[in-house]
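Deviations from the work plan: none for this task. Representative record:
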Amino acid sequence: MDLNTIWFLLVGILIIGYAILDGFDLGVGSLYYLLGKTEEEKQVLLNSVGPFWDGNEVWLLTGGGALFAAFPQVYASVFSGFYLAMMVVLLGLIFRAAAIEFRNKVESETWKKRWDFLFFLGSFLPALLFGVAVGNVAKGLPLDSAYNYTGGFLALLNPYSLLLGCLGLAAFLMQGVTYTMLKTEGAVQERAKGLFTRIWIVFVAVYVISAVATYIVAPGLFANYAKMPALFLVPLLALAGIILGPLSTKAGRYGMAFLASSVTMAAMILTMALGMYPNWVPATDPNLSLTIYNASSSPLTLKIMLIIALLGVPVVLFYTTYVYRVFRGKVQAGRQGY
Amino acid sequence: MDAVFLSRLQFGLTAFFHFLFPPLSIGLATIIAVMEFLYWRTGKEVYDRMSRFWFKLFAIIFAVGVASGITMEFQFGTNWSEYSRFVGDIFGAPLAAEGVFAFFLESTFMGLLLFGRDRISKAMRFFASFFVALGSTLSAFWIIVANSWQQTPAGFQIEGGRAVLTDFFAAVFNPSTIPRYLHTVDASYITAAFFVIGISAWFLLRNKNVEVAKGSMKIALIFALFAVVAQGFLGDMHAKQVAVTQPAKLAAFEGMWENSANASLNLIGFPDPQKEETRFSIGVPGLLSWLVYGDTRAEITGLKAFTPEDRPPVLATYWSYRVMIFLFGWFVLLVLWGAYLFIKGRIYTDRRFLKTAYYSMLLPLAANEFGWFAAEIGRQPWIVNGLLKTGVAVSPLPAGEILLTILLFVVVYSGLLGALVYLIRREVKKAAVEEDMTATSAVSLSGTVPVQQ
């Protein structure tokens, strides 16, 4: 495996890590009004993500940095191309950060209501738009000879990309709802269980429609699978996660349900990535596609970055595990919710 | 208004806003770690109260720092795509390293402290605070590595129209990294120390929360004293480096037009870019040459050595630099005054000092921003010094879209700033009232009025 492929996978792992971890925060935020009815329940929900959201978001920042470092052409073309959409995501994440930290600082109904709304909006918008972005990339972008996107903002909101936006949103909601089942008890947990079934059904339906739509809109994504049928194990893994979800929920094994949802999320992203490889951004004119070779940094940079990752990541995983262990168990309402 | 101007305006605004917070966070995290250390080692309850109080303010500041920092990570791609393509082989790595080595550490242990403070031991509380401080200090390192490479690029060669890495350590430790890093981190200590001194002074003036205020004032004053003295040397070290590696910037700092042996250190004057002269200039002859090269007759390059289009905007650079220096002079005076009162045992009661300290509380934030203006405007017209001009580095975006996002950022950031100021004032006032309540309960229990000195 060459360095470019390794970095394609490593950036993919960062995106998957982000989708799994911040996925549950974004999911809880998007379901905030549906899961939390009373003040106490809302506090429980906020406290359940309180210690983690910031660390989880670092996966996105690191993923952005790694993409910049390893594939600067992709970083430049995609983020400038998706300018307004990207700004909406960023504003959403700003709202969410401020809302989680500020909401419980003042005992005032209006104060809390305002931050509640920003918490919801700041979770919902990114949860929806990440999928829209993936849809546009999968479909192929109109790039000019300088690799600049030429399509304009409204072209990003095409039916296929919106469909993938819904798929992404449903996957984030599954993360959020399974995490809530795991971390809460009582009425909130019951509500989460009820919601899980409905979200699961929607997810499966959108998943099937998306698969069919992808075959029509972006048949090129299936080429690698035709060449190497063993790759079908990855979508099968997603299927296993999809089946395991409701089974473990029914059995009251919520940790397993969260794991199943996370596996589905990971396998879904990996399915897309394997279909894209070695492209990062297929262009409407295939000669202009950004690949892991023409969009990458020099071998020296890729090598140094690999050393940085090998030195840093084990340490990160070590202390992250420690902190998650400190907060194991159910969440309570109140200022320090654990 | 073209895309270049608007993208510069947006980057300037968002970075200006963001840069209010990290220096304060870095310094406060360090001061809080010291308090946690004292609490762990001595077990004295007052250190716990001090740490808890400052941590509340820190958490609010940290949140806005995180919220406004998200934009920075992606703005190179969204608004500066040509720049990103040109520098990606070098500039991206420090940003990724910042994530791996700094942000994870900072945010993970911040979460632990925010929600798990009462679940962990005193020792672990110290270590968690220490890791938050370490994380934020390391984060400053990597971001200054990236920015310093823009100032004094090294360890690369140009291949196919972009900069390609040839030597990682030469790029990381480029000529300006270390001077700029030390200068900035030390500025962070000054910033936080003044903040702590100022709020403590507010308590002392009202005779509220006295124990916490006195303890905090003492620690912060020691911090400020060391940091201000160190900044004298570090600032000098940084200026020497600028003189050698970015002569146009130094010439703009000094408002110096002609090459000059026996160059004078400018105190004040009025640069006139049209006439290419600095009017009413007052300076100390030979001092600049001596400071840079240790020789009063050493030659220093003037602005006229550069063609007008390669000179930085002189007025903005000159005045930003000057305001920073004047503010620093004020910090030196204030800290020396504080140290004198401390030795005399009057620091907690001298109302004139306490008021002055209170009103000077936020001045280091201004000094930071002006220093940053001087550094960044002084680098113009280059986005990467000598290699790439700012004007060709932007994304090909419609001006209207950038204008729209600028307006959104202005609205959202104003809201954030409003919430931040409101919450900090609220916490400070609350601490004053809580102190009152403990004092009243002490009265009712013992039947005597507690003596306050």
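Chain B touches chain A through 66 residues (CB under 8 Å).
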